[in-house]
Known about the structure:
By secondary structure, this protein is mainly beta. The protein has helices at residues 115-120, 277-288, and strands at 11-16, 18-22, 26-32, 43-54, 61-67, 70-78, 81-85, 90-93, 98-102, 107-113, 122-132, 143-147, 154-156, 162-168, 170-171, 174-175, 184-191, 196-200, 206-213, 215-218, 223-226, 229-233, 239-243, 252-259, 267-269, 272-274.
Amino acid sequence: xxxxxxxxxxxxxxxxxxxxxxxxxxxxxxxxxxxxxxxxxxxxxxxxxxxxxxxxxxxxxxxxxxxxxxxxxxxxxxxxxxxxxxxxxxxxxxxxxxxxxxxxxxxxxxxxxxxxxxxxxxxxxxxxxxxxxxxxxxxxxxxxxxxxxxxxxxxxxxxxxxxxxxxxxxxxxxxxxxxxxxxxxxxxxxxxxxxxxxxxxxxxxxxxxxxxxxxxxxxxxxxxxxxxxxxxxxxxxxxxxxxxxxxxxxxxxxxxxxxxxxxxxxxxxxxxxxxxxxxxxxxxxxxxxxxxxx
Length: 294
């Protein structure tokens, strides 16, 4: 068992993800924004796609759509998705891969299920995270960072019951390679029954955990959580604890995210996230007049 310092964060709330449909019929669970939680600054959205069985079909996914003012982080656990964007980037996202796209001043992209995968069918499972950009960076040049599974470092604790994929930030002595605009940590923990971990949180960062699979407990009070639930941690404290009871059927898959809040006004309209409604109207005009294209 990992040591748990006394000065850890309390749980501020537990939120159930809301089921909805996105794009061309993809079933998702939206951890936020929903009726119970609008955002966790600097995070704007977390969608949990699947796990679901995809039957053979000629097409599917999320067709061309624009973004401005934030970053999208797509993390695939099962299946295959093809990314294309107006900057000319093309990439296949396979199990374990991450696609980190900074929309900045504006980009148009699609996330369609890979032709071979969709024609054969199979399991689909993944997440998409939206990370806000501060006002000074909202009009930066778009950027695309593909992170193949092999390039995402993994660490394991001494008893072998806890492993973590370090997508951004650091955990168990391992540092991620990705370059982020807004300082965040993005950690995927796999905790076997009887395992526990304590993750330090940078001072001033907001933090939440989302359970992808299984059952677990969070915080010093060991509050039980199950798949599809988000745990929001209070702002005070040096870290958070996660554990899986010895009676659990299998390992829990948990995303733990922390980020330094931007503390700026947020104006949203669909795929545009700016600071003011005037900037939103400008984004719409720019998109309609083709300014998002090279």
